[in-house]
Amino acid sequence: QTALGATPADTDEFIISDAGTLKRMDYSYIKSSAGLTKLSTTTVSSSVAAAEFTSGIDSTYKLYRLIGQDVQTVDDDVNLEIEFSSDGGSSYITSGYDTVINRLAAEFNNVVTATGAAMDLNNIGNSTNENGYFDFYFVDPSNSSTFTAYYFNAVTRNSDARVVHFNGGGMYEATTALNALRIKGAAGNIDKGTFILYGVNS
């Protein structure tokens, strides 16, 4: 009969039904804690145009993490991109990104600026073991009063059979609430990969 009006204390109790038996449980058992909450997984095992996440990106979390594992494209020497959407994936934003990428390999160390995507990993190969792996974070995407920032680390074995490390980041430079994203090749399809989206608990 009394509104709590604040986050419950650890020893505050809930009443639950366990197969019809009423039990009490402390709030400490169910409260969120720092760490990751897995939201969804998309696995690609045959050729698709893109891997999409069209739900779960909202105001629940301030920070989101997207991991890509064992990614390979159908065609050789393809750039892997991430693009955001503001309409749940009905369309995707292909401009307005200000991205700076540092690319490091044995034979070069240079900076690449990409304006068409939030992440642009160069020259992924399609031969055995020429795969890409990335760890991509994006910040407060549902906030329509600030730019959405993002940053990432990645490693690939490229089309020249050389290991390349990428890191970079940037912002989508518009005050737009973002609620979906896709991972795609700049040309051609994704052939395989596992993509996992997490919310980061503060």
Quick summary of this structure?
The chain has 202 residues and is an all-beta fold. The chain has strands spanning 13-18, 21-26, 35-44, 50-53, 63-73, 78-85, 97-105, 108-114, 119-124, 132-139, 148-157, 163-172, 180-185, 190-201.
If you had to describe this structure to a student in words, what would you say it looks like?
Helices cover 0% and strands 56% of the residues. With 202 residues, the chain is mainly β. The protein has an 8-stranded antiparallel sheet with strand order 3-14-5-10-11-12-7-8, with no helix packed on it. It has a 4-stranded antiparallel sheet with strand order 4-13-6-9, with no helix packed on it. A hairpin with an 8-residue loop joins strand 10 and strand 11. The model has no long low-confidence stretch (mean pLDDT 90).
